[in-house]
Write the structure tokens for this entry.
Amino acid sequence: MSILKTANLTKRFGKFTALEGVDLEVNEGEIYGFIGPNGAGKSTTIRILLGVLKATEGSAHIFGKDAWKDAVDIHKRIAYVPGDVNLWPNLTGGEVIDLFLNLRGNDNKKMRDELIERFDLDPTKKCRTYSKGNRQKVALISAFSSNVDLYILDEPTSGLDPLMERVFQNCVMDAKKAGKSVLLSSHILSEVEKLCDRVGIIRQGQIIETGTLNELRHLTRTNFVVQTEEPIKGLKDLSGVHGIEVKGQTSSFQVDTEYINQVIKFLSQFEIEKLESTPPTLEDLFMRHYEGTNESGRTGAGGAS
Ligand SMILES: Nc1ncnc2c1ncn2[C@@H]1O[C@H](COP(=O)(O)OP(=O)(O)OP(=O)(O)O)[C@@H](O)[C@H]1O
Ligand SMILES: [Mg+2]
């Protein structure tokens, strides 16, 4: 069942088109990774979902309700963490966490205490003294101690150290175990790779790819490293083979998924001594999509405020 759905979501700021026909769907119990380069439109999409920005065209629904008109209702069942958390400077971290929890009215005090412990936060300090990472922790603790159905996280781990990054990942996995759904926008691809059931890649305001990691990998190439007794002749003439590098008896290259079988048959005639193949990482996949992208290709770019 779908928890969150946008259809043909379009947002223009004056002449500048920030989002163009974005279709996004997060199902119940799913962790959805929302990735894309800087300025691609992730935060804009999220602001529309939160009812902070009004879409120019198209629709955005959460729990079947309209993100703009029914924002108040929707907010009772979602928790949001931005990448740049601002807090009231004169309240302590603990006070802010309780404030958020009381606002939502569905808090879990035991969970709060446990998370303060896990995130190693001193809740007695005034927010003005917190570092960037500590401010993120305050928002994460209040989000994950709220008993909500959907977590909307926009680069939530910016500024967290690797230890805390792991605590965050555990929180997301616990939420999933409890049947919750998560929309996670992130630049940390290992985080997305580890956590997300499905991924959507946005570029210049348009979704260019969606699917499970396996489905996305299928569209890409597998890395091969082969050592043969005899030098491999004719590799570069083979279909589906890219990026060949040869060092002595060892050749490395990438193969399009549909040509793997053919390539292995070909290689076997050269007496294979060693063969390694690794699927592309999300980063490989990303780089291929990101290559040659910049803001200047965008509709109406330059007219942006
Ligand atoms: N209020 C606004 N007025 C004009 N342009 C805006 C406004 N908000 C966002 N934009 C533009 O819309 C585009 C998308 O921005 P957005 O913040 O959604 O990107 P993002 O994918 O979240 O990027 P990042 O990874 O850097 O956070 C950018 O080019 C940005 O400059
Ligand atoms: Mg953003």
Remarks:
- Residues 8 and 21 are 4 Å apart (CA to CA).
- The chain has a mean pLDDT of 89.
